[in-house]
Write a structure and sequence with these properties.
Number of domains: 2
Radius of gyration: 20 Å
Strand order of the largest sheet: 3-2-1-4-5-6-7-8
Structural class: alpha/beta
CATH superfamily of the largest domain: NAD(P)-binding Rossmann-like Domain
CATH class of the largest domain: Alpha Beta
Oligomer: single chain
CATH topology of the largest domain: Rossmann fold
Number of strands: 8
Bound molecules: 1,4-dihydronicotinamide adenine dinucleotide, 1,3-dihydroxyacetonephosphate
Helix content: 40-55%
Strand content: 5-15%
Length: 336
């Protein structure tokens, strides 16, 4: 079994460390040759995941061909903005019928399509074994081997089973799903609500407000996902409500921390300029809000995060707008 991790940020390092405890032939692709050399020598990324030792037998390479060819399983975990380009670059070396896993959480710019859809298109004629992996999984905890659960989803049942077998361990419980779109929309859109959660904590709004935000956040994530082909029930699972809870409440979350900074008055540019780590929720908001507007999908929290990011509302104004909206019924079917 030859497994390769494409992306050496926090998530890639956590996953390859987990997989290295279960498999012998494991590779980590790091795009920067100097960084790859440092990782080879120190077996640790001080920048992305300090305190996690990459096992000695993990092959670390900056050569994409070496990281791709002959691999039975390729896991993509770059920031979402790089996934399409990365798959395009890998395509000439991807083995026929290899299983390709998308562990990045985001959507395609412009179209808002799921990353698995883009990957499938780029690998047409080479493989259709495309799987999404998503769940409440902070790299900091997976890297330390703390217990967790996740979901692997695919239209191809055998591909999902294959990835389930590869990842499953007494430390990581892996569930299967056939709703790849639902799993991906949950993973991508929860980052918007996590930013909002950071904003609300930054304003000191309390636990009742947090519970309301998570619950109403789930409702709008589900509305969007279902409108684009996901199954409603998937959002009540690990990749939906599970990931939403952890990202809205964990101090590990980059999106949550970005929200805290927005509430403190920092701009999106100041926040992203101050960290090398990806804050996916900003990009996902830029993609989702115009789509929600275009297709008439009510997403009030997403709308306020968009306005906050664009300096159109302050955090306090965003709160006021959300609290003073027209009266609604909870299930969205408004009674006369
Ligand atoms: N960190 C976490 O706990 C989890 C992250 N994810 C997702 O995984 C993806 C990656 O996240 P992290 O590893 O945390 O990010 P990170 O910010 O820790 O690291 C990003 C890595 O991608 C590389 N990179 C940046 N731009 C690139 C490009 N254009 N082409 C190729 N490589 C590029 C960087 O050099 C770095 O190695 C994101 O979509 C994130 O939402 C999913 C689950 C958990
Ligand atoms: O997706 C994640 C946890 O499941 C990571 O979230 P952040 O990108 O906000 O850190």
């Amino acid at each position: 079994m030859k497994i390769s991790m494409i992306g050496a940020g926090g998530w890639g390092i956590a996953m390859i460390t987990h997989l290295a405890h279960l498999h012998k032939d494991v590779t980590l692709y790091c795009r920067n040759p100097e960084t790859a050399e440092v990782l080879r020598k120190t077996r640790e990324s001080k920048d992305y995941l300090p305190g996690v030792k990459i096992p000695e037998h993990v092959r670390i390479t900056a050569d994409l061909k070496e990281a791709t060819e002959k691999m039975d399983c390729l896991v993509l975990c770059t920031p979402s903005k790089a996934v399409e380009q990365m798959v395009e670059a890998m395509a000439p070396w991807v083995k026929k019928d290899a299983v390709v896993v998308c562990a990045s959480k985001g959507l395609a710019a412009g179209t808002g399509r799921c990353l698995s859809t883009v990957i499938s298109e780029k690998l047409q004629g080479i493989t259709d074994n495309i799987v999404a992996l998503s769940g409440p999984n902070h790299a900091e905890e997976i890297g330390k081997g703390l217990p967790a659960a996740t979901v692997v989803a695919s239209e191809k049942e055998n591909a999902a089973r294959f990835v389930q077998d590869i990842y499953m361990s007494p430390k990581l419980r892996v569930y299967r799903s056939n709703d790849i779109l639902g799993v991906e929309y949950g993973g991508a859109l929860k980052n918007i609500i996590a930013i909002a959660s950071g904003v609300q904590d930054g304003l000191g709004l309390g636990d009742n407000c947090k519970a309301a935000l998570i619950t109403r956040g789930l409702a709008e994530i589900q509305r969007f996902g279902v409108a684009f082909g996901a199954k409603a029930d998937t959002f009540y699972g690990l990749s939906g409500v599970g990931d939403l809870i952890v990202t809205c409440t964990s101090s590990h979350s980059r999106n949550y921390n970005a929200g805290l900074k927005l509430a403190a008055g920092m701009t999106k540019e100041q926040i992203t300029g101050g960290t090398r780590m990806v804050v996916e929720g900003f990009r996902t908001t830029e993609i989702v809000y115009p789509m929600a507007k275009k297709y008439g999908i009510s997403m009030p929290i997403t709308e306020e995060i968009y306005r906050l990011m664009h300096g159109q509302h302050t955090a306090v104004e965003a709160l006021e707008c959300l609290m003073t909206r027209a009266k609604k019924s909870e299930d969205g079917i408004d009674m006369q």
